[in-house]
Amino acid sequence: MQKLAILGSGFISEFYASSILGQRSKDEIIIAASRSEESTKKFAEKFNIPEYSTDLNKAINHPDVSIVVIGLPNYLHLETVLACAKAGKGVICTKPLGRNAAEALQMLRAVEKAGIFHGYMEDLVYTPKTLKAIENVKQGSLGRILWAKSRETHPGPHSDWFWDKEKAGGGAILDLACHCIEIGRSFIGKEQKPIEVMCWAATQVKPIDAEDHAIGLVKYANGAIGQFEVSWTFRGGLDIRDEVMGTEGTIWLNHFLRTGFDMFTAPGQSGYVAEKAESDSGWIFPVADENQDLGYNHMFNDMFTAYENKTSPTETFYDGYVVNAIMDAAYLSVKSKKWEAIEIEDWRGEEPDSAASHSLASYNDQYYLLKEEVMPNGGKTLLLKDKKTGEIIRK
Ligand SMILES: NC(=O)c1ccc[n+]([C@@H]2O[C@H](COP(=O)([O-])OP(=O)(O)OC[C@H]3O[C@@H](n4cnc5c(N)ncnc54)[C@H](O)[C@@H]3O)[C@@H](O)[C@H]2O)c1
Fold this sequence. Notes:
The chain is α/β, with parallel strands linked by helices and 395 residues long. The protein contains eleven helices and 18 strands. Strand 9 (213-220) and strand 10 form a beta hairpin. The longest helix has 20 residues, at 317-336.
């Protein structure tokens, strides 16, 4: 059982608190802290949190608190993580870990030096669908992973600070590609070194200094490609989808909008339908259980179980740091319009093996297999390539 402090009483903290305290949980939030007294009090009352404060340090240093849950704007992650390290408290921080890799590395070094528990709250790798898909990929059901594409697009964030490039650290890339990149790493294999990034980004609609739309490719040492598609200009709600392609199989995941729950309502459903929903009447796309479907429940279970077992959770500050390093390279690529190297000062996975090669699909000793297909006339076509001469034949 954990006794928690939660920092922030805004959008994400609502989800965090309802997930932590939901389903007859044994964990307790004993203090909430954020900037405005009125909203912190309201938040504490809603979730039956016995203490609240506008002083973040009071919550961090509360003698009974074991883990601090950070749900604050991006520009406050570094200073609050450093305060947790100083207080010797376990800390779990929302995404993105830092506004850049330098901030993330500072946080990683601080928690490791202090020897405290740390977790990176990347909920989207904990959705039930993603957990199952990752398990299948690890069992080899898809063969070698060649490409992992992840998309998160919506009509734009809900709070002022997101739109301020200095406070947020960036635009749609920093806010949303952090999710997509970690999903890609989880399918491709976190031990695989991300090598370089090619990224396009633009400010197409919103009057902001940062990008409101971007598409990027992340190349890994084993040749696999991670792809992110992010936007703050997408109309229609929150679209979260992943596609994984391997040599032996494919996975398509639809997490939001089109999850299999479509509803038509002429009078409309007043109030909240689902995150970033743009309509509450006509055809709407409710989400059965957002805490479950967005991964919050499994994420907190992993975090607190790891803390109790004195192990590391699936997502640590190291993962947050690697993701930030990839996004730094993406921003460089947007400017240079070239592939940019990813600088990871402290790489802990496999070293790239320049001699590594993948075997091509073989048919027999003489031929490679190009393609086998049943044709409209019912006959079978077989396309083969001679291993010695290179001649391509049809059988
Ligand atoms: N799926 C996800 O993982 C997800 C989704 C949304 C947001 N987030 C992340 O959560 C963090 C917060 O985002 P949000 O959407 O909850 O923002 P928000 O604006 O809704 O809430 C921010 C909270 O921080 C408090 N706050 C702001 N400045 C403060 C200060 N100086 N001192 C103390 N408290 C202060 C506010 O009072 C508010 O309670 C961001 O890092 C964001 O990227 C994660």
